[in-house]
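ok so I'm stuck.
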Amino acid sequence: MSTSNLPHWDLTPIFPSSKAYEEALAKVSSLCSEAREQIERHDRLTAVIETFNSIYSIYNTISSYAEAKLSTDTTDPLSIAEQGKADELGLEVQEVGTLFYANIRSYQDEFSDPALSEYGYFLEHTLIESEHQMSIAEEKLAAELMRSGSDAFERLYDTVSSTIGNGERTVIQLRGDATNQDREVRRRAYYDELKTWKQYENSFAFCLNSIKGTVLTLERRRGWKTPLERSAFDSHISMEALDALISTLENNLPLFRRYFAAKARLMGLERLEWYDLFAPVGSSNRSYTYEEARDIVISSFAAFSKEMGMFAARAFDENWIDAEPRKGKVGGAYDTSFHSAGVSRILANYDGSYDSVSTLAHELGHAYHDSVVMTEPAILADYPMTVAETASIFAETIVFRNVVEKADRDEAILLMDQFVGSAAQVCVDILSRFYFERSVFERRKEGELTPADFCSLMLSAQERTYADALASKHEYMWAVKSHYYSTGFSFYNYPYAFGQLFALGLLARAEGEKDFAAKYRELLSVTGKLSADDVAKKGGCDIRKESFWQEGIDMIETYVKRLEESAGRN
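replied:
not stuck anymore, here's the structure
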């Protein structure tokens, strides 16, 4: 389908001019000075918290705006400059935050203040964070060095990966051919993609070595046992819950290998190649116009919750979505919120496939979550990735279940394959990424890794998860996935599996329950106030037990069985 008439988002309601952006920068800087003075005077904790809420609300909007502009045109000089100003301001915000951490213990006698009752988890979490801080001078130096070091390598990765290609098409566009019905087109795109990644492998290896080396140094100095321990802390998930999740994924790898075998039979193949993973199955050639995607998402949301349907309509009507794939624009999709403006924006690369429809639903699920917590003070509107992915996958599953029940047989096979294939990515491929990142950190302790080392570790991780279900693997997935190139959050992978299985577990428990939409909204509303374990309890779930995670897997298995029936058993 043509993508030239797809919408670009409208950012003018957020900052209508460069002057407004500059004024916001100055306001945050002024608030940081005020917070610093409040802490030094030891003002009441309520006053300090109020100032930090203002800082985070405006700074969230600034940083989201800068990211949004740059991600749609990574070579634009103005956007690069605005990102630089946001990063520079971020150092100031981080510095005053470090000062707060350093002094948090002196405020402990005020934790019981009734005016701070909703901040209980945040304050206790901050208290633990303070135990893992270096001195104020060291933290300031680390932040300044990161800007010109690992953060710069992250920006380099984004710029290079969004522009390279085979001379005719970017690697992002090549990856889009993974859903092409023509197997030869998929095969050529796959090998062209591999050649491109190999051509730039040294650049990506330098970036990844720098970022992972920085993380190891800083986490060690801050007293974390491993980057994974820090990641779980930042995700507000207990290690017991994380272990239960990983074990459930490992125990169910045979289920997903059954799916890969069924898909191969449906495609008339003995075994899938890597470039077959996202290929459509069945005889349906259905493509969705952007307008059809809009109607599907809105109606599906509304069937679950009138409020969600109205929200999705607003996002489309007010031009919140940048849907057109184009050179210079980053790949993938994301949602970003602007707390002080009370709105969100969604980046997508729409190609007419059902996967693109599902992606819109996924990101609008994030945005709906944002809208629920946006009325909270900025501190309490900040939720971790674990529960964030719950809202997005919950939303895309609502759409899937609504669409698949109305589809004819051939289209139903295609849609079920899309659903289980996506679940396989979140459960199987995510597990391989988890293994890979854990092994990279272990090896990076000994020194820098070569591109060949990264490829070897990637293949080893994929062998553990896919085994012989695929005839080929993708040794450059370490270069493909931008999530590895984040200094601020390591193991940017398991939260997706958390979200997938938590969302499906909630849906399984919602069967037959009246007005579950209200209960779901209430659960989302506390995601910035409680640990992930305690948020789950609001839905009647114990995420420290494998039996809960298995409920989500069981829902996936119902569709695996239907695909196996359609494929016929050997």
